Amino acid sequence: MTSDDLLARHRAVLPSWMPLYYAEPIELVSGSGRRVTDAQGRTYLDFFGGVLTNMIGYDIPEIREAVERQLRTGIVHSSTLYLIRQQVELAEKIARLSGIPDARVFFTNSGTEANEAALLVATNHRRSHQILAVRNSYHGRSYAAMGVTGNRSWTASALNPLQVAWLHSGERLRGLLARLDESDRIDAAVEDLREVLATQTAGDVACLIAEPIQGVGGFVAPPDGLFAAWKKVLDEHGILLISDEVQTGWGRTGEHFWGYQAHDVTPDLLTFAKGVGNGFALAGVVGRADVLESVPAISFSTFGGNPISTAAGNAVLDYLRDHDLQANAARTGAILADGLRAAVAGLDCVAEVRGKGLMLGVEFVRPGGTEPDPALTTRVFEACRAGGLLAGKGGLHGNVLRMGPPLTLTEDEAREGLAILVDAIRSCASAEVAA
Length: 435
Hints:
The protein has about 425 residues and is of the alpha/beta class. The chain has helices at about 5-15, 50, 60-70, 85-100, 110-125, 145, 180-200, 225-235, 290, 305-320, 325-345, 375-385, 410-435; strands spanning about 30, 35-40, 45, 105-110, 130-135, 165, 205-210, 240-245, 270, 285-290, 350-355, 360-365, 390, 390-395, 400-405.
């Protein structure tokens, strides 16, 4: 079977709104470490990790063996109506690491479900369906999660079960706060929050949900400390803070284990997903017991925290900590960030290289300003693939090249990927100038 045959079959039975990467989509058939191989035998260095999900890499013996041990018991699924040792052990680890006092953990299958559960808990706890969310955010594809997503490209319905009021994101390139000096942005964001509460809500708001670094939004980060400044206002009103750590968690930013820790604050709830399962469906929400217990009926997740996924999760978390992958993310991320910034200096088609650790974005614009250039982004994206590197795309305008390699990335692999990236950017930029 050829890739073209599979592509035709894909288009015949799957919806058109499910995007495929590349002008000639590829099928990945094997992987090892940080590399994957497609159906044509071409091997790539993976700098996107299944959208920041294959956090430890591919074919990791410790994870494979943990899953195989569970498979050998014959119990793939039991439902949470029975005790699951792997689930309890993983919940204990996550509760300790969360930084939230007297924490409880509820497992789901995806980040969307985790955020949906967090919103359920928060609205029940506060007896209100009013939510504060952030512009340019992404929190999932389900009804409520989509309702608090501030990105038009990902908002597939105008219908919303929640009443949402929107805050400025703190983006450095565009928007009202971008006009201010860095030192003034937090004060302006707090003023914005107070005005939104006074003018767009009835006062009894349930929560603010926010990403420490906006993932789909193009790895846009507010100034460090913004969450703490917001929370002082939230606490005046009893409003909960939910930190969406689906992409920023588990040490990916290098400087902290959770993204919220850059803000010197502790959220009331945090959601997690992606990397902790390293490809197995595993996600959840952590919160204070008094908050997470705010569900006035029976509820559970049929597959959430099942024996297989939590066996993988335990192995992932143990491997992550045993190998200090947070420090590795800081070290290899610095190689990429410093190298990229030096290489693109003087290129007026690159507005910004941003991010933390192994969560990096390059934003492309038309020369002479900040007008997004998604076409150039696509050309660089395709050139990276041609050079043997898989990256991602994102941003509100589709003009950000996103990189979220496995946290096991080596220094040599970081330099290898950097060379491919730099060549792709320079060659495409030169072609644009020539045209």
